[in-house]
Amino acid sequence: MKAGKRKNIEKLKKAALGMITCDLTITNVNLFNVITDEIYPCEVDICDGYIVNVRSFSNTRKANTKKYYDGRGRYLLPGLIDCHVHVESTMMTPENLSRAIVPYGTTTIITDPHEIANVMGIEGVKYMIDNSKNSKLRQFVLAPSCVAATENLEKAGAFFTSKEIEEMLQMDGVIGLAEVMDYIGVINHSKRMSSIVDQAINKEKYIQGHCPFVSGDNLAAYLIGGPVSCHESSTRDEVLEKIRNGMHINLRSSSLDDSSINIAQAINQINDHQFVSICTDDIHAKDILTDGHINGVIKRYIKSGLKGRDLYKMATINAAREYGFSDIGIIAPGYLADMQLINDFDGSCPEAVFISGQLVAEKGKYLLSDEKVSQYQLRNTVCVDQIKSEDDFLMRVPDGYNKDAISVNVVVKTSDRLWRTVEKMDLPVKNGCVDISGDPSLIYVCNCNRYGYNNKTIAIYKDFGLNSGALASTVAHDSHNMNICYHNPKQAFLACEKLKQCGGGVCVVDDEGSCDIIKLPIAGLMSELDCKSISQEIEKVQQKLSKLTDGSVHVLSTAVMSLTVLPSVVISDMGLVDGNKQAFVDIFVND
Amino acid sequence: MKAGKRKNIEKLKKAALGMITCDLTITNVNLFNVITDEIYPCEVDICDGYIVNVRSFSNTRKANTKKYYDGRGRYLLPGLIDCHVHVESTMMTPENLSRAIVPYGTTTIITDPHEIANVMGIEGVKYMIDNSKNSKLRQFVLAPSCVAATENLEKAGAFFTSKEIEEMLQMDGVIGLAEVMDYIGVINHSKRMSSIVDQAINKEKYIQGHCPFVSGDNLAAYLIGGPVSCHESSTRDEVLEKIRNGMHINLRSSSLDDSSINIAQAINQINDHQFVSICTDDIHAKDILTDGHINGVIKRYIKSGLKGRDLYKMATINAAREYGFSDIGIIAPGYLADMQLINDFDGSCPEAVFISGQLVAEKGKYLLSDEKVSQYQLRNTVCVDQIKSEDDFLMRVPDGYNKDAISVNVVVKTSDRLWRTVEKMDLPVKNGCVDISGDPSLIYVCNCNRYGYNNKTIAIYKDFGLNSGALASTVAHDSHNMNICYHNPKQAFLACEKLKQCGGGVCVVDDEGSCDIIKLPIAGLMSELDCKSISQEIEKVQQKLSKLTDGSVHVLSTAVMSLTVLPSVVISDMGLVDGNKQAFVDIFVND
């Protein structure tokens, strides 16, 4: 598969032969050859965006070129490839993301627009493809495979069957099927998942996996089903079992999760790393500004015990080969001139980045003046007509219930990282509603459908960390219904109204009614601001939030509260859901 | 790309889960995992020809299986892949080749039927595909790109343009374009080669390279042109330059050539071997019997300094990835059960070989009873109507020439391996013909068109090594016109008549008129005999030949005398050709 559009082969050959003048020659560099794992001096000639000659050793003829770029003895290597990223999680549009991460050396990303797909369906996927076309960053799309993540446990803004998958796989820029999260469906050969995966198999497209803790016979069945990769491993043994069974392992270190030490141990145990590549998955703007992008993941894994040079190979040639790209990930004649110059193999920001042979960034600074090339008129996707007043945030006991206390399945923490379960608690009833005012460790959480289904669920969470006020967000994987965490319906209603008005985002309200908002008008997921501006907005909201919490809550804490495929109790618009059992959990306990 | 036909995924999943009974379980083996480069104990479950489960470490459940095969602690690894082979050079049909090489552990070959294509065009390619379909060995075909090898220097039995390439690329089993030998055409963007290569580029098919000694700017231009591999390197620096420039290197050690020591030095200099794979190219039946197949190449390269385990990776996962196969070359769930059991990583014949999970060979013995499954009625391709009598082998001086000696460009050896040049010699003229009877170091060589063009060329060769009698052959790369080496027209005519009668082959005639023939009735290139029988025929002819020669001449010595793309003087039906200049050389010198 080619990442680049059709090239003028005759012209490039002439440029290689020195018969016509090249556009650029990068001189005085030490090439890191990711094929042979060697470093040696060379000069690279570029024409029409392609590498036409890598002159080294005996081939020392003078370049025939318009321009030189002095590499000052630095290492030249291919641009980095992010194997799996949800652009929506960065809170930026595809084109703004491009400007944010290209300076860090990333030149290609493979995206899964399943967040916006859950909100807006194929319309959203098309927006992401259209918007990305204006970016320097090469962006390839995988068709979201699990929209919605589950079939009967939530209502998202769209529901994809094999028909939608077929349509997307025919779109320009769509190169495969995105993370097949419904591993149970694949293993058990459910009708829906089989028909979806079949679309990719029949078209011989890449199928991305996603199977946390899947092991043994189940893993074998999942692999037979088609997925070839996984970015969800968190233990050493999990990584080892998957790669030994033929799975490509995408190292991850996202804003939501870091298992790099365990994963690095596994990688160090095996002798060949060609099936290992790198991804960010979910990383938001502020973390990009602070930690970088794929280079930041590399830095993290160096700290966790892997070798820098190996990691740069993973993020270049390994990623390209995993996807079957034959013109990126390597510096050689005929490849796209996506390259970077670095001082060391340590994950630092590169000194210079080239895409299609164009110098696009230097020392972390984006050099082009292509700000705001796209203008879109997108509809407001926050439709919460079921919320008409504060009273709609009261947690009412069942009709006819008239005792002054009620048994409730309260959502509590488990010993695991992020997971939760339920625990029965007796709570007071006041005016027909559950009253938590006596226990500051409890809050109400409402998951409110925002696609016109008029569903909502209100449950009690313990030890969430919010001491007062309310936190509301339209970012809630994967259906992205609105989550509101609150002590008092008044602040909840205010936060909800604010998000409705601006088309979604994250809103924090204190007890005095003062609001701060990260506005995400694009599908309730993305801002039109650039990385720095959206980071400032995030920072401001986080600061307000920190005053209301014990410090453990951040602006995306609600983002994983509703992911029905997690091995956890989560909240959807249809009720409390036990992800392990893929079944609803009663909120009120019938003794 | 899948090597296997469509699989019943639902059934395989159930087998993986232990819900249905597998066909076979291979127990008690040490898996050589070619992905991670590890060795560990496991059991492998097979169903419907596919690997469904590789149970190791914690997954120690009892197999649900019909049959067990005890691996006795041996190493289990994938079957070997030959990246590039001309089946015709083995002198066997595709199905006989299968029976010959499968016992050596080869389970997949990628063939270039350009020998038969030169003789019979697309009809020949179809025969090879058809005949291979009955074999256990997986055989994939690359469309011959250079038929004839040159445009105006010889007349072959076919001439392919982009039209024929397009037709072949659409055939079932054709997976790409075969060795693009006309590197000069590619580098200079000749109309013919560009239009041929474009067919493969447009269909995103694999393009195999072939570019001996191409280097520097020319190599860059060749790579831009599309070819991705080369099996023609013979020096250390040549290998290093090619692999560093992104080329897949196919290690070769054929019946015609061995540069393994130089190549091994290059491979040992680089740190990553993922772009190295293995091929046989031209290997004939007798060598297969003696030395094995890809395992024999492995043995040779171990001797030349490479590590056994690395070589087995090259011939499995590396080859599969080079071609983009996603279901062979690895032992993992969902992959075809093409596997072998070996005692050591030393290139010895495997203890057992499985294809699609079927035990096909043990201890070098082919176990199936599928002899002679195909019967073909093929036409006699030897059409030499221009040879009517002994007199046609006289080397006549030009009309009107009446001196008693003449200046002749005699074809002499250079200091190189196989190459030749010309040297002017004055030779006597007798009865209007060049007379070499006074110099036993000289012979006549006639290249005689066998496709009805009625061309022939007669030239003088020095130090060929034939002391008496005649050697004739219809195997003469690539156009495969008939070459006859002789001292006396009488034996030449006899040899020619014999080959005409039997449809081609190699014939040796001594001065008494006693003949021995390797009969190759299929396109004058292949026998219908099995490996052992044809080897005996070769041996018998070789023995007769040895009596007539100084020991340096073997039955295939004439096979490279007419290859117009060699950097050598060669003989075609149209004249003497200087391959370096791609131009004719006068036979008679005009002083």
Structure description:
The structure is a homodimer of 591-residue chains. By secondary structure, the first copy, chain A, is of the alpha/beta class. Helix content of chain A is 26%, strand content 26%. In chain A, strands 1, 2, 3, 4, 5, 14, 15, 16 and 17 form a nine-stranded mixed β-sheet that branches. A six-stranded antiparallel β-sheet of chain A has the order 22-21-24-23-25-26, with helices on both faces. In chain A, helix 5 (162-169) runs parallel beside helix 7, helix 9 crosses helix 10 (260-269) and helix 12 (294-303) crosses helix 13 (308-323). The interface between A and B is large, with 62 and 63 residues.
Topology at a glance:
The structure is a homodimer of 591-residue chains.
Chain A: H1 9-16, E1 24-33, E2 38-47, E3 50-55, E4 68-70, E5 75-78, E6 80-85, H2 94-101, E7 106-111, H3 114-120, H4 122-132, E8 138-143, H5 162-169, E9 174-180, H6 183-187, H7 191-202, E10 206-209, H8 216-224, E11 229-230, H9 236-244, E12 248-252, H10 260-269, E13 276-279, H11 285-291, H12 294-303, H13 308-323, E14 339-342, E15 352-355, E16 358-362, E17 365-366, E18 405-413, E19 420-430, E20 433-434, E21 442-448, E22 456-462, E23 470-473, E24 482-486, H14 489-502, E25 505-509, E26 515-519, H15 531-548, E27 569-572, E28 575-578, E29 583-585
Parallel strand pairs in A: 1-4, 1-5, 6-7, 7-8, 8-9, 9-10, 11-12, 12-13
Antiparallel strand pairs in A: 1-2, 2-3, 5-14, 14-15, 15-16, 16-17, 18-19, 19-20, 21-22, 21-24, 23-24, 23-25, 25-26, 27-28, 28-29
